[in-house]
Amino acid sequence: MDADASAQAHSVTPQKVWDAPTRLFHWLIVGLVVFSWWTAEEHIFDWHKASGLTIVGLLVFRIYWGIAGPETARFTHFIKGPRAIISYAGSLFGPTHKLAFGHNPLGGLSVAAMIVALVAQVTLGLFAADTDTGLDSGPLSRFVSYDFAETAGDLHEDAFNILLILICIHIAAIAFYLIVKRANLIGPMITGRRKNGATGPANGLASVPLWRLVLGVLIAGAIVWPLAAM
Amino acid sequence: MTKNLQLLAAAVAVLALAACGGESATTDSGAPAPAADAGSATLPNGVTVKQQIEVRQKALKEMGAAMKTISDQMKSGAPSLDQIRPAVQTIKTHSTELPTWFPAGTGPETGVKTEALAKIWEDQPTFQAAAQRLAGEAAKLSDVATGEDIAAIGAQVGATGAACKNCHDQFRMKKEQ
Q1: In Å, how far is B68's CA from the nearest CA of chain A?
Q2: CA B163 centroid distance within chain
Q3: Which among A103, B95, B123, B153 could bridge A78 via Cys, Cβ 3.0 to 4.6 Å?
Q4: How many A-B residue pairs are in contact by the CB < 8 A criterion?
């Protein structure tokens, strides 16, 4: 959607909420989690491994971006203490409730949990060994014992259920905002912009220098490349 | 435009939620409760059911570990035949013993924790053929591993792994079940 056209149509300037790298991260993770699940079910190991390693790179980038990225991508912006989370949850149905600029404290918790679950998932996968053929294994599997690799493989399979639960909560929350609060959170995650933003800077999300993006991509590549070569 | 986008988003969210619900509904497992004296009965070969199951689990684990040793060497860039050869012997020896590890009365009906499916005893010809296939591939692996041709060993390791998988796919419990 073109920002100018949208602004003319509604005579309100849409507020930028999400930067492109964060949105790209989000939708690539959506696609790759589905693809990883499918290739695991179908035992298409080479593609499962490639998908997992790509997720490793995306997570490395996202963690870096949580420190070096623009405001709404930063951990300090959306990871809040229990008081802020409870306070937000309490105000959800109150008259003063406004949609947050970026993640709200409750949503931030959900996002942090999904990132932790994904990190655990790919870490287990790196060490896992498939005990059906004895051959398909994560790139770090050969540095650990058979028992360790077998356990990592079992946990890699089990932990996916935790990820599924977190994804379901995430989707349920989005459905809640859409249906109950009449707020579409999906559109801004696609376009990066929202209409009638009542919180956050009027000018929208401030950009960060391009070199920071380049550095993040280089760091992610530097970690994934050796793993892919193993 | 906005309306359509909202409708689409709502539809996607509802579908995704439905998928979530469907997923959780199917994860309930109906495993039978084990009998109190599970596995204490003695088999014709003199060991208890529980012991027999433990023997085969230990041996299959040794085969898995041996496969991992070989596979790790193959992926290491400088495979060591001194590491590979003993592991190949473990697989070959165990592959010939394997048909004796599953006597009648050592299946899931005993209540002892096992990933062996009842189909092993219901379809003995297929099971024995799968075991024969493994023994054949393992013997070939042993032959090729006496040589120095790493590529040939690698190819035969793949064939052996496929024989493992062939049997697991048909006769080993999957996690979802």
Answers
A1: 6
A2: 10
A3: A103
A4: 87
Answer whether A39 touches B (CB < 8 Å). Answer: no
Top pLDDT among A35 and B29 is at: A35
CB contact under 8 A, B64 and A134: yes
Q: What's the structural domain count of chain B?
A: 1
Q: Which amino acid is at A126?
A: L
**What's the pTM value of the predicted model, to 2 decimals?**
0.82
Residues 6 or more apart from B153 whose CB is under 8 A from it? B74, B79, B84, B141, B144, B145, B147
- Which residue segment(s) compose the domain that B109 sits in? 3-171
What does the pLDDT look like over B123-175, one tens digit per residue? Answer: 999 999 999 999 999 999 999 999 999 999 999 999 999 999 999 999 999 86
Pairwise CA distance, residues B21 & B176, whole Å:
16
Q: Which of residues 116-175 of A touch B (CB under 8 A)?
A: 129, 131-135, 137, 141-142, 145-147, 149-150, 157, 161, 164, 167-168, 171-172, 174-175
